């Protein structure tokens, strides 16, 4: 990356946690290999655990060894990164810890500060207020930025309250609300694919698109996150952030430039164009369920209510399907179907654009490709790529049309795995590029739409949710949701 004047420090609150161990430090290791980090960079960790500099270097070195993308591990690069690490032991509400942090920043002669909230979300406001009280947020002569992890609030009111706290200390231009899905190569490729190709750009509207499906499937259960998940469910954990961001990128108009304001302006228009789901509309256009015991990869797994830390009477959804509409000129009348769940058969994130079928069957031939054989699938994870399904004549004397596929695979085409999302997002933040981060009005628009659904659920409480067996693609009711009004079926990922 281009040099910045003076030293730079990344200050990680919650440096002893899983996010830092699995994602942040391995990402910084990859950036250092690629010589994309500032030469004079320090990494300062603050957490409660009884560590010192050496313990921080050891444990985070283990994270690099286990989770870094590039193998074999370079001990030289690991040592280079470790030499930059400094640890401050403190609770997040202890002002003395922030005073120590300020002094460490001054002693390292730091000009630029990037604060990273990798701590539990309930500590965000405390950390931000203490940074302001200790004037740590203004102690460097260069730029100052802060990265805030999701969840950014748990409803519209709490998101606004958090915004109020963070804006007391930081300007909006300094705030980087991170959604790691936006750092994935194929997510960024959505805009390139749509707006840089004359073949597809004219087709991307209600005139040619029958409907769009977005699937975010996980094989894992709640694991050790039951305490968090009981309060969030799929709607807060996936829908409000990841899924609505994917929808906005899929549906948005072309920005006037690929910069932060232009891209985020267009995403905001989509979020504000979503037809509100309130009252009975929210009940009829959403479907919730919980997983029960079943088999994942041949191993029997517990049901949600049997997981440690889950209320046996819980009505928290682990699966959500919904039918959404965007009331604007381009997408009027085109349904957007979303589904997301835990303990599904495969880990996959995919956007499927289903094009209109032809007006008449071709010469009465048997169509094994179905009524609408043209499906464009944007595969976001785990195998990043793009697949186009269309109909072709099947070999042989019979007049039959069969489905065939054209496929772009990122790894095969470009000769390697795509960079991890956190590599791109950390680098963008260091460079001051906020394009792939969410703006305050985006967050509030997404929460406004989501909170309407939450309020509708609260007004129509249930004692038990429908269930689906772990290792299946979800409950029967989700099929009814997509088929009852429009006679559609869920697309099965390859």
Which descriptor suits the 3D outline? globular
Question: CATH homologous superfamily of the largest domain - what is it?
Answer: Dihydrodipicolinate Reductase, domain 2
Number of domains: 2
- Which strand order do you get reading across the main beta sheet? 14-17-16-15-13-7-12-11-8-18
Q: Which stretches are low in confidence, meaning pLDDT under 50 for 5 or more residues running?
A: none
How many DSSP H or I helices? 14
Structural class: alpha/beta
Query: Which percent bin holds the helix content?
Result: 25-40%
- Please, what is the average pLDDT? 91
Q: Terminal Cα separation, in Å?
A: 38 Å
Give the tally of β-strands: 18
- How much of the polypeptide forms β-strand, as a percent range? 15-25%
Biggest sheet architecture: 10 strands, mixed
- Architecture of the largest domain in CATH? 2-Layer Sandwich
CATH topology-level name of the largest domain: Dihydrodipicolinate Reductase, domain 2
CATH class of the largest domain: Alpha Beta
Which terms summarize this structure?
six-stranded parallel sheet, 2 domains, Rossmann fold, single chain, alpha/beta, 22% strand, Dihydrodipicolinate Reductase, domain 2, 494 residues, ten-stranded mixed sheet, 36% helix
